[in-house]
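Hi Y.,

Following your request, here is the sequence exactly as I used it, all 335 residues.
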Amino acid sequence: MKLKFLLSIVLFSVYINTYARPCWQWGAQNSPPYAVSFDLSESFSAENNQVGKVVQVYKDIFIGVSAGCGWSSGSSEYWYRHYVTTLPVTVHPGGVRSIKLNEYLSGTVLMSQWGEEGEINPPLTKRYGPAPNINSGGALNINDFQFRMGLRVTKAFIGTTMIPRQIMFTVYGSTTENEPLVYPIYTIGVGGKITVPQNCQINSGTTINLDFNNISPNDFVQAGAGNKPNSVVAKNKNVTVKCSNMQGVATLTMRLEAENSQGDMMVSSNPDIGFKISDINNKVLTPNNINSFLPFTLQNDYAEILLKAWPVSITGQKPAVGAFNSRGILRIDFQ
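Below is the corresponding structure, written out as tokens. Let me know if you'd prefer a different format.
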């Protein structure tokens, strides 16, 4: 009797699973998702470059793609579309959702859907139907159109900020609300360049080069990881900043971005050697850290900042003989 009871449980679970199933791009179950991409490049006014300001970008397009959920003996009449993102989401008062695009901007997406009232504000899951052909394997139309992006300023910026090319949403389908999402049907990608009138030029737009000549490999070993060889003298560099359209703003910040970093060090082309950069008071700038910066004051839209730089050992190991270099970018922000 116990064996018979166990068998009935197994059969029951198989029977139920025939009704819950994922959907896919119709006729292309194992194909890459249909890809849609938008260029969000815009020029903001100085007035719009303020925290909380929203600039609308319209893309009058029509996304005509179909989904299929396969054949089933079930009686379901509805299916679900899931607009999913891997980017950070903020929910604003009133339930409006926005997605972080970079450190200065977030985006609120609104889309219309053919045959549906109102607009959707993904990410979300929404039920559609009744769809009479959902169990026969027929095509389920996805007709999204009139893409509207509200670009919200989360931090005012200077010059230009890039929205990296990235997938904002992946759209899936299923016959139940909580079905595992297996086959992406289509994706929405975004990218672009946003420019504002407020602008600053560092060192008249020229590259800042510092040459430390020849250094013995043994000096890096004696220095130890994170430290400057005793034989090396830190170099000072006076950096100029000239700004325009700042509208009376007096205090700005400077921070450091690097291609490769470890802690407060820029890693060079030689993985055992790096560089540190600081202000005149030895306050080191940690690369790629938005919270590590040097404040400075503009006078008549101009400032001079004295920076210090020196090589350090990254690993404490003896580095290979040969030239080494590192490249960083100095970035100006509003405080």
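Confidence is low (pLDDT under 50) at residues 1-18.

Thanks again,
Q.
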